[in-house]
Amino acid sequence: MDVLKSWRDPSSYITTLHVDEDCKNNEYTKEIIERFSGDVVIVPVGQSPVVSERDFPANLSDGKRHLYLTRNKGHFLKPCPATREYRCCDYHVLNTGMNCPIDCVYCILQAYLNNPWISFYVNYEGMLDEIETELSAHPEELYRIGTGEFTDSLAIDSITRLSEKLVPFMAAKKNGMLELKTKSGVVDYLQDLEHNSNTIVSWSLNSTRILQKEEMRAASLAERVEAAKKCISWGYRVGFHFDPIVDHENWEKEYFETIDYLYRELPAESIVWISLGALRYLPHLKDIGVRRFPGSTIYFQEFIEGLDGKSRYFRDNRTQLYLSIYNRLKKYADEKTAIYFCMESDEVWRDVMGFVPEEKGGIHTMLEKAFWGYSVGG
Length: 378
Ligand code: SF4
Description:
Helices cover 34% and strands 20% of the residues. By secondary structure, it is of the alpha/beta class.
């Protein structure tokens, strides 16, 4: 049963590799097929993988067992799809694929995906070219590039080994850094890579209750922290994202337990940044989430529609959650660690942290300073 099994490596849930006929002779595709131990199905040109006979949204659960190797015909690198109404951090999203074998009750992709399967793009040379072109065109900017917006790249890394291509490539960049965001414990392939401190490995963290009940097939808290410890021993710096913070019974005690554990296990100076973001979702995600996960209660609370059209907790509620968690983090955090909000208003910044990002040059500057190792204060 899922609950009892350790899901340090959630890619073991994938049973079938579907290969776009167009890509089957690609060297990287061949390398992945060679490594994969499950079924391999070639998908004829113009057709799509067949992964489920069930209708949406039930087919989303079936799709988690199917990985589709195809080509990205659009752009790989895009500014984070943030909304103007809340402070965002000027992140660049690297689109290496879509969806992942983990299944989070709150995953926004459930509302966006047209297809139930997991996609992975094998034309990685195009991706590296695109990064090269963008970074060379703006040498004065530091690009923070992350893979965690549409997928969890490390969750399928034991099949794809994309990190072996990306990390050394980014190591040579003077104005770019890579963030590999994950909920898995799959880090062993990072051990011998040339990274030049340009890759930060980061984990999403939560109270144990949310980790266990709302993030199916994700690594446990101990597995995530253990993986971070390994990365630190290999010279990587790490980050953490308390996102989404969920209001639940005993939330304060349980978030404190996670924070206390984190700082008991890891050296504070290895943590470059920590973000905080309370649960927010597109209204129609609730219908999908409730149908797919009838035992979950996270959508049954008081929410208000934010300026970006997403449902959020009321401001007082968010501030209360953030204040407790922020103060607990500050008790242990190194002065160089940047603690920041993902998509929050200036009012909340001021109420919780006592300043607005502009006073520190903006969130991007705060994170840039943390990356280069300067104190951002606050
Ligand atoms: S790990 Fe990320 S991409 Fe995967 S299901 Fe959870 S929220 Fe979605």
